[in-house]
């Protein structure tokens, strides 16, 4: 099981705005901020998550990542739809509208967007439609 994942972004402020809006339908928000001073000059970082667990990190200090794929679990199809719309409204670009992806499995319902750095961000629900 993965505890957390993180990658570098080109503009922390822009990425913060994008991810705050895109991940809100999933109940994910910024719960920890680490400054450049706190890391001893190794970049500033934002930890997104729920409760006290920051499991998704973006930060500065390295070359921005591109080509990363991160999929967030959604509790239902409506939340996948809400994530997709929120991500587009936040400036993301379409990389696959919400829908079934039966090539993965019969109930795979996902939506894909590109973040400001071109990373592929997904919300997915694996259950049957209710």
UniProtKB/TrEMBL annotation:
Molecular function per GO: dioxygenase activity
Gene3D superfamilies assigned to the protein according to its UniProt record, in alphabetical order: 2,3-Dihydroxybiphenyl 1,2-Dioxygenase, domain 1
Pfam families: Glyoxalase (PF00903)
Keywords, sorted A to Z: Dioxygenase, Oxidoreductase
InterPro entries: Glyas_Bleomycin-R_OHBP_Dase, Glyas_Fos-R_dOase_dom, VOC_core
Residue span, VOC domain: 1-126
PANTHER family: GLYOXALASE FAMILY PROTEIN (AFU_ORTHOLOGUE AFUA_5G14830) (PTHR35006:SF2)
Name of this chain's protein: Glyoxalase/bleomycin resistance/extradiol dioxygenase family protein
Source species: Paracoccus tegillarcae
